[in-house]
Amino acid sequence: MDIRPILFTLRRHKLTCCLLVLQIAFTCAIVCNTIFLISQRLDLMRVSSGVAEQELVYVQMAYIGSRPDEKARAAVDVAALQSIPGVKSATLANELPFDNGSDNSDVRTDLAQRMPVLKASQYFGENLAHTLGVRIVEGRDLRPEEYVDLSDAFTLLAAKQYDKLPKVALITRAMADRLWPGQSPLGKRYYVGKNISFTVVGVIASLIRPGQDRLDASVQYSSVWPLRLTLIQGSFLIRCASQDRDRVLRAAVDKLKALDPNRIVLDKGTMEQHRRDFFQNDRAMAGILVGICIALLIVTALGIVGLASFWVAQRNHSIGVRRALGATRGNILHYFQTENFLLTTMGIALGMVLAYGINLFLIVHYELPRLPAIYFPVGALLLWCLGQAAVLGPALRAAAVPPVVATRSV
After folding, report:
1. What are the residue ranges of helices labelled H in 315-374?
2. Domain range for 40
3. Where do the H-state alpha helices sit in 119-241?
4. How many structural domains does the chain have?
C-alpha cells in the first residue's frame, strides 16, 4: 500500500497525531521499565534459600520471669521436640532464613587487609546444618565436641581468651568462591574482627542471608558457627516430613507449653509461610506495578479507539468516494490499520529513547540494574498488538460504510 496519502492526511492533523504519539511513547517507556521492575521483584521472590523449606517449622517463644537453668531447660526442650513422632531433627537457632534481621560480620582472609573482603551472616545452633537440611558439598559437618555455649563464648570474649573460642566453621560455596577464587577452601582460615579466626571444615551448597537489605549479590554469604544456644537466645527449629508439618507444629507448641507454662508463643509456622510473609511487600509492589501497566495500556487503547472513531466519523464522505471508485472493505480496513501502525511506530521509537533515559535515572538514583535489551522489542510488540486491536473496531465500522450512504451525506 502506498503510504503517501496516509502521511498527507496525518500532516493535516499534526496536533492530534503528536498527542497520540506522545501518549504511546510515555506508555512504552513506563511499561518497559515497569515490566522490568516486576521481573526483578519476581526473581527476588524466587531466590533459593538452600534449606529444606517444605520440611521445616519454627516456634518463637517469649519467657516470663528469670531462668537460672537456661542451658538445662534448652536441652530438655530440644529433646522433647525430637521425641515427637515424625520429627527428624530439632534445635535452637539464632536466626532463620527470611528473617528481617540477622547477625553479620566483616570477613578478611588476612589481618593486614584494611577493608574486609565481604560481610557475611552467621548462623548458630547445635546440629543446625542437618536441621536446616542444607547440602554439604565439600568437607564435613561440625562435630559435637567442637560446640561451645554462646553464653560461655561471650565470657571468653570478655576475658580475651580467644584460644578457647570455636575454631571451625561451615561456609557457603558463594562465600568460599569470593574469598579464595579457584581454590579449595578446606583448611583455609578467615578472620572476623581482629582476634577471632575460623578454619573452614565444610562447604554448604547454598544458605541465604536473612534480611531484606541483603538480597543482592551477597545473598549467599553465610556461615555456620559451632555455638550452642540457650532458651532466650534463639527460636526452635524443627524438621519433619512435609505432610506432617501441621501436626508436628501443634504438638511442638503443646509440648513446650506443658514443659514450661510461663512462656508465650510470639510466632510459629512453616518455613514456606515465613517466606510468604517475608515477601509480602514485594508481592504487593508487583501487584501495584501490574495494575499501573494495565491502566496505562487501557488508557492508551481508549485514546487510539477514540481518535480512530473520530476520524472515521470525519471521513465518511471520503470513505464513500473511495468505495464508489472501487475500494474494497479490505482496502479501507488496511488503510486505518496502516495509519495506526505508523503512529504507533513513531510513539514506540520515541518511547524507546524515553525508556532508556528513565532506566539511567533509576540506575543512578536507585542502583537498579541496566534494562536488558530484550524488553525493547517486547514492549514494541505489545504496543503494536495493542494498537492494531484498538483500531480494529473503528476500522471495521469504516469498512462497513456503504458507498451510496456516504455519497448522499455530502
Report:
1. 316-324, 329-366
2. 4-46+281-408
3. 128-132, 150-158, 173-179
4. 2
